[in-house]
Amino acid sequence: xxxxxxxxxxxxxxxxxxxxxxxxxxxxxxxxxxxxxxxxxxxxxxxxxxxxxxxxxxxxxxxxxxxxxxxxxxxxxxxxxxxxxxxxxxxxxxxxxxxxxxxxxxxxxxxxxxxxxxxxxxxxxxxxxxxxxxxxxxxxxxxxxxxxxxxxxxxxxxxxxxxxxxxxxxxxxxxxxxxxxxxxxxxxxxxxxxx
Length: 195
Fold this sequence. Notes:
By secondary structure, this protein is of the alpha+beta class. The chain has two domains: 1-49; 53-185, no CATH class. It is 29% helix and 27% strand. It has three helices and eight strands. The strands form three sheets. A four-stranded antiparallel β-sheet has the order 1-2-6-4, with no helix packed on it. The chain has a two-stranded antiparallel ribbon with strand order 3-5. The termini are far apart.
């Protein structure tokens, strides 16, 4: 059987072209994967560089009331922001539910209910815009023992938190980006009202 050289050359060229195409496809795929990894690393770096720098200042104003100022100190490139312990109820009774326990603020301070868009439990104010270099005062007050904590006075309840930090969880957003920042503040010494 006699195969013309032109057919052999055409077949060889086609085979080499297919091999080259597969090689180019693999290189493009690797390149796309590398580009995606580099883009992801760059997005993560950018996100980390824009992590809000928040300063908190708590000033007691008397009679168990306080003002917490949340100040966005930077970074300047951020520009603005857009608008740990689990408690379980062991025995339900006396009208106390797990929802009551979950809604209770387990710490020395809560946000003042009904002020700054805060819910009735004092767990947190409504969201608000904040520009770099500006602050926002938020009304706070000392917490009281839960209604189911029979025999526990305000002084005893607050005494449990002496020397313990005030813990805040701040959720900051700008566009599609979000940062959740855990912050601790010193708990001012509680002075009983009758002292």
